[in-house]
User: Fold this.
Amino acid sequence: MSMAGNLRKVTGLGKVGGLRGVARLARRRLRVDLSHPARSPLGSSVVNCVMYRDGSRVPEAGDVVEAVARVRKAGDGFVWLGLHEPTDQEFAGIAELFDLHPLAVEDAVEAHQRPKLERYGETLFAVFKTVCYVEHEELTATSEVVDTGEIMLFVGQDFVITVRHGRHGSLGPLREELESEPQQLAKGPAAVLHAIADHVVDDYLSVTDSVQADIDQVETDVFAENGARVDPGRIYQLKRELLELKRAVVPLTRPVEDLATRPIRVVDLEIQAYFRDVLDHLMRAKEQIASFDELLNSILQAHLAQVTVAQNEDMRKITAWAAVIAVPTMVCGVYGMNFDHMPELHWRFGYPLAIGVISVACLVLYRGFRRNGWL
Assistant:
């Protein structure tokens, strides 16, 4: 029987006599490989359900109810249940089976939570913001740079439940990597918590490196010869995307500090030492984001200053040409008043003299403005 199919029965634990009743119902159906979500009767929310003992994967552990029963009966090992964007109905049975707090369940289903770490009795509830760099050929004012998601974890003495939201952040490769290190996985659910935290923080560093490349490109364009023509929307877009990254990284500092320093029952002291390394990487990512924010502010201010200088340059050119044009306008205006008695009006050389005076005056003004850098 599939774990997902059995979950519909888990929602009615009280009606069938608790865990034993559900286990009896589970044995009446054929098992389904949960590594193929499309075959789950509940859809794609159930990703996987695996039982581990002594750091090794237990083959044919059965559905989630059977796996939990075996772990609790033996007093050894743990169950790792992975979900992707479950609904209230899909998660109700799981919450009852593992005795999860309703507030934590609500956060896990609704998503859009700040990174945090909360304790509900014997269960630890952690929220991580996942980030992914969105590749693009050229940064524009509408380019998406950072895509975010979430991973929620319920960690108990004998189980780990991961709830993933978003289009990225698959934990399949991470699970395979952990299974290749049975000594680390043998340390229990806390080892999974550390591996996920370390994976998420490493992604932060990878994304910050990619964002730095975009910032360097914008900086180069701004300080190029035609930097004043750079679209300021690109800078604002980077600042908006950087804010998304900041919302993921900065609030996570306190939870990781607690995992690294404060005594927590489900986190062994040996695992806490590993969280100190995660905290160090997280602080580095936090410092990089702060420096990026300051750098973008400086780039934006420099760009605005360049625009102001360019505008002043244009105004000086316009003013200089207006002054040059004012000379012939004045002379032509005087001789265009049509009075009968005007100096040199009927003189044979009057017209060439007026043209000469206009030309010389315009040439003198032009050379003067060129010498002063106005033209």
